[in-house]
Design goal:
The protein is built from eight helices and six strands; from the N terminus they run E-H-H-H-E-H-H-H-H-E-E-H-E-E. The protein is an alpha+beta fold and 193 residues long. The chain has a single domain, classed as H-NOX domain (Alpha-Beta Complex), CATH 3.90.1520.
Length: 193
């Protein structure tokens, strides 16, 4: 497998709901984000963690990645597992909460809508969903001007959590078959349930 790289300039933005969910996951582990993360983060990122974050606020992708890496260091669990869990928790909590209206019992409809609404949750890239069978599809993320393997692992977890929220029958399998971080044109996620 090719080495994965990262490109974060601070221009790419994501909605505050992602960061809020990741901080809530840490709290569920019995760890206070302010106490545990702030001393380990750069001052500008620590400031984001300590202030009241609105679900609709825009947060830099670079800040989210810094927080996620620090969360993984604090919980002392293999980083890749933590990043997937953060995405999974984000889907479970946001699709049952603030974005419940986006959830549907039909995965193809959900992922198609997710692709169409991509720019409401992040200000970079584009996404496209394609049905590949009755219980399979492909999500393709393109034109990412900023990228990180951390974000890709979180996406794997997010798609799994979305399927769990929809009570898809399983077995659930999400695999990233192409990755911008590895020099590919897109991040392509094969989603099966």
């Amino acid at each position: 497998m090719p080495t994965k790289s990262e490109h974060l300039t601070g221009q790419a933005q994501i909605k505050g709901t992602m960061l809020l969910a990741h901080l809530a996951w840490l709290k569920n582990q019995g760890v206070d984000p302010g106490t545990a993360l702030v001393p380990l983060l750069a001052p500008e990122v620590a400031q984001i963690v300590t202030r009241s974050i609105l679900a609709t606020a825009w947060i830099s992708l670079r800040s989210l990645i810094a927080v996620d890496r620090t969360i993984a260091a604090v919980v002392k669990t293999p980083s890749d597992d933590v990043f997937r869990e953060l995405g999974r928790f984000s889907a479970n909590s946001n699709l049952a909460g603030v974005y419940a209206a986006f959830a549907t019992a039909e995965p193809h409809r959900f992922f198609t809508r997710q692709a169409m609404l991509h720019d409401r949750f992040q200000n970079f890239g584009a996404s496209e969903y394609q049905e590949m069978g009755p219980r399979a599809g492909v999500m393709r993320l393109t034109k990412y001007t900023e990228y990180s393997p951390v974000f890709c692992l979180s996406a794997v977890g997010y798609y799994q959590g979305a399927l769990e929220t929809m009570k898809a029958p399983g077995p659930l399998r999400i695999r990233e078959s192409e990755c911008t971080c590895a020099g590919d044109e897109a991040c392509t996620f094969e989603i099966n349930w």
